Amino acid sequence: MSTLKPVLSRTFQLMLVLWAVVTILFLMFRLMPGNPLAAYIDPTFTLEQQEQLIRQFGLDKPLLQQYFTYIGNLLQGELGYSFRYRTPVADRIWLLLPNTLILTFSSLIIAYFFGILAGAWLAWHRGSRAEAVALPVVLATRAMPEFWLGMVLLAVFSFSLGIFPAGGTRSPGTEYDSLWALYTSADFLSHLALPMLTLAIYSQGLPLLLMRSNMLDVMKEDFVTMAKVKGLSPYTIVIRHGARNALLPVMTSFAISVGYQLQGNVVVESVFSWPGLGRELVSAVSASDYPLAQGAFLMIAVVVILMNLIADLLYTFLDPRISHA
Amino acid sequence: MLEAIASRGKIRRMFGALKVPVGDNFAVAGLIIYVLFMLTAIFAPVLAPFDPTEILYSTDYELASDLLPGQEGHILGTTSLGRDIFSQIVFGARSALLVGLTAAFMVAFIGTIVGLLAGYFGGWIDMILMRLADVAFGIPFLPFVIVISAFLEPSIWNTVIAMALVLWRDTARVIRSQVLTLRSRGYVEAARVAGSSDLKIIVRHIAPNIVPLSLLYGSIAIGWAILTEASISFLGFGDPDSISWGYMLQDAFASQALSRQAYHWFIPPGMAIIFVVSAGFFISRGYENLLFPKLGR
Amino acid sequence: MKTSSFQSWAGNMNEPLLSVKDLSIAYQVPGLDVVAVSRAFFDVPKGAIVGLVGESGCGKTTMARAFTRIIADNAKITEGSMLFDGQDLAKLSEKAMNDLRWRDIAFVPQSAMNSLDPVYRVEYQLNEVLRGRGGLSRAQARKRAVELFELVGIEANRLRDFPHQFSGGMRQRVAIALALALNPKLIVADEPVTALDVIVQRQILDQMRDLQRDLGISIIIVTHDISVVAYICDRTVVMYAGEVVEDCDTKTLLSAPLHPYTMGLKNAFPDIASAGSGMLTPISGAPPDLARPPSGCRFAARCPFATDHCRAVSPTLRQFAAGHSVACHRADEAVVLRGKAENPATWGEMA
């Protein structure tokens, strides 16, 4: 298939980017002021632990060799030991990753579902009073700090109205048989509600404005006019031809939005005490738990780059002009 | 004749960057908000009734903490530590303006230079610069700012530095695209053939067409800077000695303002941010329509 | 499906298929009404190919699109009628008009690339009209699609392709196949070959002529290129600045035109059949601003034969001879004027 070449080349490019980010991370932590060993070793570790880490990460070897050891360790999933938790960083990261992903994807799916429908509706009702009100409101949602929105929702729905819990993923004392049971429980969902709503409101602006803008452009295209001349039904014209074409860039933006949203996660997780990678990054940095901070940052970067790649590939496959060149 | 057409368009575009988009209500509203914002920042000491960091006591020598709006001359009440909220809002405009302008300038400046060089010279310069941009796109921004804050002293400049290092990427791509379009038009090649130096071509033909774009992206960057700074302060990595809107929100959150439903404390800073950042959006939309008119939008 | 409409019309062969009477179309721009088509009169006989020729902005495209009643949002048919098969298209309800669309009146656009949806295969887009509007079953539609492609000279296996996979000329054929899908009585083609190179132009035009002969459809070809008209049109309507200035059979138009504009047009285009021969003398100047049309003859400013009378009084379209109408005060002197028009110097003086 003729698309294989660009797919491979783009994948390769982004692997390079990942490598570059990983290297920057390495340099940042190694070259920070103070004891170069401080990136991996906390004075409170036992001597045995310290020696093991020195060996594992080659901390007594020259920088270049340390670098290769670092890469090698990374590929094996070895990220060092958390100062605070005394457990391997990797374990902690894998534990928290699902929480972040659930929050990110659930809120984005809602945001996009709403945004696409609302954007198409607004395009259809161009120049109406509804549009004059809706557009500034949507722009305002993009202008607000997500954590502030979270604070407001928390204050209103949790503290004032008492509908939703104030934070965390579950009520204290609850036990579940499996992860699946946990994630589908009403308790978990009620904890998920507010942070998810916060991120959804914050994120819907992009798909809404993009869909609206695309619809307005597409409806002016010649093939839409032709559809009218052919005497096709309004549904066929607006949805089958109009929306289908307008949707293309919106779908690829979804993948990229995951990357941006993940960063917004950081503050929202903090507001709602949601145990995810973002919150972990913040607390690790505050506590100078460098290995954990590195690990959390790295995981976030990997997801961002991966989603960028998926966005590129999506466009290749969804646009017949590219997939059937 | 091509010269004449080119220079007329060029001049029009430069003035386009300065003109006030009178027809667009929102853009005008945005400009008014910006002006108010700047005036507030500049005249903060005059406008604020109290020192924002000063811990105040009420007449009966009790800590003037958690006062409600209107009590004892505090328009918006006081924080748990007894500081006047309204004064904090007023002074918050200062750090917002400072961070906003410097960060926006850095982002626009770096982005424009990179885009210009990449688009104009092409070849391996382009390749290297665009790979750099790819890396910048791969770095999650807020986490990056947080990590940087781990190494540097808590300060509002952390935001500016981080933005300068990473957020030039959007501007660079757009400027590069524009430069490529300009290059494909005849007169750049014509000037080359006529023997003009690269610098002259850039200054006379390219710059006037991309400066408006730089300003556009710069004005959007102001909003991003303020939002980022707010997030950083909220997370506790900001400068505790300077009162910013983000700091106020962190203060409120940490002081359980939410559970005590002290809306008067945390709503105003958020509203302030929304107004200023929205104003930025409106203005940039207004200028965008001015520079690239899309009929009937 | 009708195979030959000819026999069914034999009864009223003399009635024109489309009769445009006193048609005016205006665009409403803030504060102003720009009259794009002003009191047009002409007929399209059954089974004929009629050319609608004029420079850009003369109103020909606006009028052509008006026949499908899909015009710009701010455009309006302000007066007149378009009698098609006994019905006035200008007065029909939207539902009645929509019934006619594509079934009786089809359209071939200027740029087929932009008029085909890039995300759907060509077969899908054919089925939209064959099944959606024609009521055919899947099997019948398939058969018809293959038939149509054969008619226009494309292999059937290309039905599964996307629009961008076709070359320019083939895309135009796809557009023609689409237009023929429901066996319409009238096809309106807007600059169907302008975007193509000369060799492909001739192929497409040949195809259109053959199809027209075999199926008996009437075709209106809108173009600014008089050589296209010369190549296949039976009759020609010349438009200038929103008005019909001449209307006659093509042979006469080329050998003995009555209107100075037509005389000038001839000099401006090489003959399509013998490309390259003949001098090119474009008519200098530009058409008047339709927002503020002049009071006299609209062509007077560029006409080497204009008199003060021409500049003061606007000529109306009148029948000069059988099947030949013209809007010119000096039509009686046409023989003499034609002689002068042959000389490029006459036009050079106007520059």
- Radius of gyration over C-alpha positions of chain A, nearest whole angstrom: 24 Å
What is the first-to-last residue Cα distance of chain A?
Answer: 10 Å
What's the total helix number of chain C?
A: 14
Approximately how much helix is present in the residues of chain C?
25-40%
Gyration radius of chain C (Cα, Å) is: 21 Å
Question: What's the overall geometry of chain C?
Answer: globular
Overall pLDDT metric of chain A: 83
Question: Roughly how many Å apart are the termini of chain C?
Answer: 55 Å
How would you sum up the major sheet of chain A?
A: none
Global outline of chain A: globular
The H-and-E topology of chain C, N to C, reads as: HEEEHEEHEHHHHEHEHEEHHHEEHH
Main structural class of chain A: mainly alpha
> How much strand of chain C?
15-25%
Q: Largest interface, counted with CB-CB under 8 A? A: A-B, 54 and 47 residues
Q: How many beta-strand elements of chain C?
A: 12
Report the uncertain regions of chain C.
1-12, 272-278
The level of helicity of chain A is over 70%
Number of E strands of chain A: 0
Q: Number of helical segments of chain A? A: 14
Q: What about the largest sheet of chain C?
A: 8 strands, mixed
Order of helices and strands of chain A: HHHHHHHHHHHHHH
Write a structural description.
- The complex is a heterotrimer of chains A (325), B (297) and C (351).
- Chain A contains 14 helices and no strands.
- In chain A, helix 1 runs antiparallel to helix 13 and helix 6 runs antiparallel to helix 8.
- The radius of gyration of chain A is 24 Å and the shape is globular.
- Chain B is mainly alpha-helical and 297 residues long.
- Chain B has a single domain, classed as MetI-like (MetI-like fold, Orthogonal Bundle), CATH 1.10.3720.10.
- Chain B contains twelve helices and no strands.
- Chain C is an alpha/beta fold and 351 residues long.
- Among the domains of chain C are: 71 residues, no CATH class; 92 residues, no CATH class.
- Chain C is built from 14 helices and twelve strands.
- Chain C is globular, with a radius of gyration of 21 Å.
- Chains in contact: A-B, A-C.
State the main characteristics.
heterotrimer; B: mainly alpha; disordered N terminus; C: alpha/beta; eight-stranded mixed beta sheet; four-stranded antiparallel beta sheet; 14 helices; 22% strand
